[in-house]
Amino acid sequence: MHEMATVDGMMAMSQITNLAIPANGQVRFAPGGLHLMLNGPRQRLTAGRVVNMTLVFDSSVKQTVSVSVAAR
After folding, report:
1. CA 27 from centroid of its chain's CA atoms
2. Measuring CA to CA, which of 23, 29, 35, 45 is 20 to 30 A from 57?
3. Residue 25: what pLDDT?
4. How far is CA 4 from each of CA 13, 18, 35, 57, rounded to the nearest angstrom?
5. How many domains are there within the chain?
6. In b/e form, how buried is each residue of 19-44, taking b as 16+ CB within 10 angstroms?
7. How many Å apart are CA 68 and CA 4, to the nearest integer?
8. Cα separation, 17 vs 66, whole angstroms
9. What would you report as the CA-atom Rg of the chain, rounded to the nearest whole angstrom?
10. Which CB contacts under 8 angstroms, 24+ apart, belong to 44-49?
11. What is the mean pLDDT of each run of 10 residues along the chain (72 residues)?
């Protein structure tokens, strides 16, 4: 996970190791803000493709989500 922020007038990206989500809350991932970054995907990612990802929470709960690849 990464986040974008303006630092000294320039956009900067920094890695996030933990993200607190309040009970019954939600977090929105979006360009220019919080986002997931895939390192070394096994298949080519093209716009419209759906990728299944498994999220692992501190409680050891795992949740698989389907994410659509968007064009930049």
Report:
1. 10
2. 45
3. 92
4. 5, 15, 8, 22
5. 1
6. eeeeeeeeeeeeeeeeeeeeeeeeee
7. 21
8. 21
9. 14
10. 45/69, 47/71
11. 88 88 88 83 89 88 91 75
Q: What is the pLDDT of residue 24?
A: 92
**Torsion angles phi and psi, residue 64, rounded to 5:** -95, 130
Question: The whole model's pTM is what?
Answer: 0.63
Residue whose pair of structure tokens reads 């019954």 in the numeric block: 24
Name residue 4's beta-bridge partners: 13
Range list of β-strands (E), 1-72? 2-7, 10-15, 50-56, 62-68
> For residue 12, what are the β-bridge partners?
5
Q: How many CB atoms lie within 10 A of CB 3?
A: 15
* Enclosing domain of residue 24: 2-68
